[in-house]
């Protein structure tokens, strides 16, 4: 159900979900544990946020002095420009401020900034945030927000699900450090996977189902979400503790592995490893592993070779199936006419039938 909610939100352009403070704190503290100066002297930009509701804004504002920030900037997207409509009215925080403008409230985004002890109480915190309306609606693709991006050091946010590809490209274009949330399946996007393969970006610390706050109250559980980043953290340099192939066959907790031989793909020179903890420590060849492997990936331990995919972008295929073969494979498996897109994944032969496996990343033990 959680994964269905994520897909439904993406398809409906319902991108208005707020990350809980505890999830943000858990993730960002991991970078600070690795390097306490991760944010020191940096300008942090939080685009795609509603600063009045954003726990990202709250986290960085509350910890401004502890983190040693130089500047915090948080921006929002105008309510009238949002595709997904909800009941809305300006908050007293906005209406009771001298900056309030009834027309701009609907059509303009807002910008919150935190730089110094503006209320002169001896500390810099959330009470020192100052805001105004942006010139435009706050779209991250606008020149106005691009200028903020270009002046920032680190970008942190939960971007719209439907615009994840474009948002990541927007960050990479400016060569910025970042920590953002996305769907785990974004790993397989052709705009994303090459960056992971080249060790330019990687997964953050915590992944899996999370509950997000909804603008109209309550929570929405989203499955398979994860953090994407290019900031270092300790867990990604922690090697997996694995058994040998013989030990896996003898002792694995997975019935698909225990007492069986590892199978080789029909269309890749690689073995199928359906579980990350079943990766054999002593196998020197290429292995197909689930995309969730990246949650435990240690670049000193394994090399990412490519991915099982249709276009053979990484020149790893050993066989291309003809249309007639795909149709015959479908008929043999299901007993009716149809086509089996065998070229889109790794293929095993079981009981003389072609079996497609789920999406696999191809890896090899570091030599």
How does this structure look, described?
The chain has 367 residues and is of the alpha/beta class. It folds into two domains: 2-237, Rossmann fold (3-Layer(aba) Sandwich), CATH 3.40.50; 245-365, no CATH class. It is 24% helix and 22% strand. It is built from eleven helices and 14 strands. The protein has an eight-stranded mixed beta sheet, sandwiched between helices. A four-stranded mixed beta sheet has the order 9-10-14-11. Strands 12-13 form a two-stranded antiparallel ribbon. The longest helix is centred in the first third of the chain and has 14 residues, at 21-34.
Tags for this entry?
eight-stranded mixed beta sheet; 367 residues; four-stranded mixed beta sheet; single chain; disordered N terminus; elongated; Rossmann fold; 14 strands; alpha/beta; 11 helices; 2 domains
Architecture of the largest domain, according to CATH?
Answer: 3-Layer(aba) Sandwich
End-to-end Cα distance, whole Å, is 41 Å
Tally of distinct domains: 2
- Count every helix, treating DSSP H or I runs of 4 or more residues as helices: 11
CATH class of the largest domain: Alpha Beta
Helix percent reads: 10-25%
CA-based shape: elongated
Compact description:
The chain is an alpha/beta fold. The chain is 24% helix and 22% strand.
Q: What is this structure's SSE topology?
A:
Layout lengths: L1 H10 L9 H14 L8 E4 L8 H8 L1 H4 L3 E5 L16 H4 L6 H6 L2 E5 L15 E4 L9 H9 L2 E4 L6 H10 L3 E7 L9 H5 L4 E12 L5 E11 L15 H7 L18 E3 L13 E5 L11 E6 L15 H12 L12 E4 L2 E4 L3 E6 L2
Parallel strand pairs: 1-2, 1-5, 5-6, 9-10
Antiparallel strand pairs: 2-3, 3-4, 6-8, 7-8, 10-14, 11-14, 12-13
